[in-house]
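A favour, since you know our structure tokens better than I do. It will help me judge whether the discrete encoding reads sensibly. The space below this message is yours for that.
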Amino acid sequence: MKLAPIKISLAILLLALGFGAIVGADRLGWINGSASDTAAKPAESTGCPHGMPDMTCPFCDDSLIDSMGFCHGHGVPEALCVPCWPALVTAFKAVGDWCGAHERPESQCELCNPGTLAKFAPRDAQAAETQKEAAEPVPSRAESQLSDDQTPRYLRSPNVTCSTAQLRVQFATPEIAGVAGIEVEKVTEKLVSQHVSAPLELHYDSSRYARLKPRSGGIVHEVKADLGRQVETGQVLAVLDAAELSQRKAEYLRLDRELHAAENLVKQLEAWHRRMNDLEVRLTANRYLESLSLMILAQENVKREESLMKGGATSQRELMDARSAVVRAENAVSENERTLRLFGIDSATLNDLTPEQITMLEGQGSTSEEPLLQAQRSVSMLAAQYRAARDQLRALGLSAAAIQKVINEEDTSGLLAVTAPFAGVVIERTCTLGEVMTVADVLFAVADISRMWAILHVKESDLSRIRMGQTAILELAGLRGRRFAGAVTWISTQVDHQTRTLNVRVTVDNPDGSLRAGMYGHAEVTVRDRANSLVVPRESLQWDGCCNLVFVRHSESLYEPRKVKLSYETERFYFVDSGLRVGEDVVTTGSFLMKTEIMKGNIGAGCCEVEPGRN
């Protein structure tokens, strides 16, 4: 706890009060006031402005707070314990830190400010609490669901019901403001960049990193690459003698031969079936024309016999035989015509059919298709097995040219090549000549190191600021003095439940190969790049219990408390979202003095936070 700021403020306050300088104004207009009645006059006997002996005043000598230890009975430092040191009452009243309603310092009044004694906890307890809080998520400005108690004070929005901004602070004369040490600075607009800092670890680009395993188990026949070697896409790294590959090639070759034989058989059966059908159709057509001719002759014979019968030149029996011949001829014609129609010959073709047209007839005879169908089924089954065998060879890593070589040259060797899937560097080798390797063994690891991934562990409180495409500057512990630029290319969707951090990927170029996987460092992600922002000094900001205030100077003797909304902080400035304009004068030195003056009426009422040594 630092008390130096309060000593300066109290000295200014007492000096101002000695001149009757600071006055308050009510909400209806301006009224002149007098010095605070709660401030005690300096003790003339000791020279201490707080009415304490010089050697025992914690406001004059803040080292007493540490040296006198902690009062566990009352939960405050011994040097600030009023029950143990009643003489401190005068000192607390002198600095305006007194709760008249409960007869104790306002900064120690749990009835007015529940939990206020927690700030006086011993340092070891505070450190433990700090570590506990560090492991928990810290709320950010954009997380509006958090309560005001969880939100950092400087990020809290102004209370719309607060009437503090209607008050004014007015000095009796401008000279008194100068004597009181009031200093102001202008509100300025700066080009600023805002960053989020996070630790990082370098990794290979997963899309350009491969751990190569053999497609089939075998014995290492040849090794063609070593650690650190630059390789190109498709370059052979090692050759294995794999029995499985030889078997697969032989099976593929057999199926190829059988498939071709089955296809030839189908072609032969199709030709034979077509010839048999054509022959049957044409023979039936010949019988049809023949029966048709016989029917015509039989009909003419009946007519002749009927004429002869009238003349008595023939017998009744011969006439009946002629008529029977007509019936047989007509039945033959009908049967042949019906057969031709079943073969697919239409009536129009039959009506105009001549002996010369018989060779041109096309139809489907009654020859059985079973042999042809069975051969076609065999071809389908062999074709499926053939395609599966070819896919198995492709899965073992054989190219289309190598597969064709199996057919053309009847190649059934088991030499299996392990090749690089992309251009990169061999970063790992685990195989040796003659070693038996299985499909689970890693032979090589290849990585394209021209680009690396930096995995940032971003705090949960900073998540709302991170966006895709933002620029990040990387610094690595092993490459001090060098900085590398990258961009955010991925944001995880899951927060680590233990560290409460989120993984964010930054892709960074590595043209000279100086970045190495596994390196640690930290990154600064630019979340706001050189944007115009209003800034005010940190010492100008005051908290009145519900709002962040700055005091704006209207004249040398008139000052207005202004509620402001802040967005970001640095070691020297706060960035203002609303409440101020460029060029306005805000109070820096003396701002706590003015807050004390406007809060006089609230001291002891539970809405004013006053802490010794803190503004």
